Amino acid sequence: MKLLSAIAVATALSAACAPALAAEPLQDCTDLGAQHSVRRAGDGAVAIRDGEQYYRAQTRQGCSDLSYSGKLSISTDDQNARLCPQGSKLTTERDYCSITRVEKIDAQAYKRYTRR
Q1: What is the pLDDT of residues 22-32, one digit of tens each?
Q2: Are 83 and 75 in contact (CB under 8 A)?
């Protein structure tokens, strides 16, 4: 019985202490500021920092240049630095990739994604 109680307490504590993956889908388009940054965030994804706002954008499969490109930019309908839930694209040095999903994330998630 003591073991079961200890497991229950440990589970509750780890759930309370675990960092939240505060990700919610982007609902409306947003115009990114002049100082925004776009960084690779794992396979087929980028993390975007715009002041104190953070986003993670997932690209369609086949964005092979993402792994090697040093210059990344976001646009929607040929409007640079515009990020939308649908229709945005990521431009690399040699190609572009369609963005399939955009989520708002927090600063901790941004740091985790960009460390990969």
Answers
A1: 589 999 999 99
A2: no
Nearest of 66, 50, 55 to residue 98 by alpha carbon: 66
Indicate the pTM of the whole model. Answer: 0.79
DSSP run (H or E) holding 47 = strand 45-50
φ/ψ (deg, to 5) at 52: -100, 10
Pairing of strands 73-76, 79-80: antiparallel
Neighbour tally for 72: CB within 10 Å: 18
> In this predicted model, what pLDDT tens digit does every residue of 41-55 receive, in sequence order?
988 999 999 999 999
Which ranges in the chain belong to alpha helices (H)? 2-17, 107-115
The one-letter code for the residue type at 63 is C
Are the C-beta atoms of 82 and 76 separated by less than 8 Å? Answer: yes
Distance (Å, rounded) from C-alpha 22 to C-alpha 114?
16
Mean pLDDT, the chain, whole residue set: 84
